[in-house]
Amino acid sequence: MKCMIVAEMSANHGHSLETAKDTIRAIAECGADAVKLQTYTPESLTLDVKTPDFLLHGGLWDGRWLFDLYKEACTPYEWHAELYALARELGLVCFSTPFDKAGVDLLASLDNPIYKIASFEIMDLELIRYAAIQGRPMVLSTGVASAREIEEAVAACRDSGNDDITLLKCTSAYPARIEDAQLSLMTELCRRYDVKVGLSDHSPGSLLPVLSVALGGVMIEKHFILDRNIGGPDAAFSMDKDEFKQMVRDVRRAEAALDPGQGIPEDENPERGGRQWSRSLYVSAPIAAGELFTESNVVCVRPGRSLHPRHLPQLLGRRASHAYKAGDRIDFAEIS
Q1: Helical residues (DSSP H) of 143-287, grouped into ranges
Q2: pTM to 2 decimal places
Q3: Distance from the Cα of residue 44 to its chain's centroid
Q4: φ and ψ at 141, to 5 degrees?
Q5: Angle between the 80-89 and 17-29 helix axes, to the nearest 10 degrees?
Q6: How far apart are CA 137 and CA 117, in angstroms?
Q7: CB neighbours of 72 closer than 8 A, spacing ≥ 6?
Q8: DSSP 8-state class, residue 287
Q9: Out of 10-24, 76-90, 231-245, 317-331, which region has the weakest mean confidence (pLDDT)?
Q10: What's the first-to-final CA gap in the chain, in angstroms?
Q11: Cα-Cα-Cα-Cα dihedral of 260, 265, 270, 273, to 10°?
């Protein structure tokens, strides 16, 4: 199955509707399958208070108040319908991450095709249930979640009658280090929770997306920005157009490399591509009709167009049905 490549716009519009539209156009040109928005107001996420609990320490947003950060980063609700329409016009799937029931309601009014739950909301079971009852595919980032929290989130979807669930392996760091990815957990998520899996990636480059495809990933999500000079909360860990386009190429080449094609060949057709370089049994010295086949006149060499080497024990000690010269193929009839 082809992996869905999702470009996350997030806050990379700088509160300009035209920049948001240009971003979606660029995403389409890069070959992405989908664009993802985030649907919230600052009040959806936090309180407008200035106490120590609400002040960020360390990392990319050190010294920022949560409310102020989300006020800067949010995508206005009134933009959504226009952005969805543009994306669909360009052949992109457009979906979003809601952060409260009001956000889910807005997305439902837009016929939102997929509901994504962010890693820091995976423990909000009421939000998950409310999104899941919309009857659309659910995508949940694992991020900082414990095994119990993941299990509860998956159960919340299923208890709501929704079993179309994808878990995205996510390292909740901005930016994230490649060596912290723990990508092998994708197979564990798939096995333990019986769900589809994918990757939500904040690391630089295409390495982790390519590796995720080899691990069975069905979705890759990466932040996208027109130009990092725009700035903004997510600029430091977002891909620009050239980087994203290269990632799409890398992922599609990885998928092609993993394609099993016709599967393992069931026959040893000597005319199949590459078989000329394999070995088979050839006559190495003249053999008269009625003469014995021996190790002195039969050799296993390239190419693979004569009798299969597995038949050597049957052939040795038999008498030739007709004369052979050096370099002749050995007839299958000699062992039948």
Answers
A1: 147-159, 185-193, 207-214, 241-258
A2: 0.84
A3: 30
A4: -80, 140
A5: 20
A6: 11
A7: 11, 15, 232, 233
A8: B
A9: 231-245
A10: 45
A11: 0
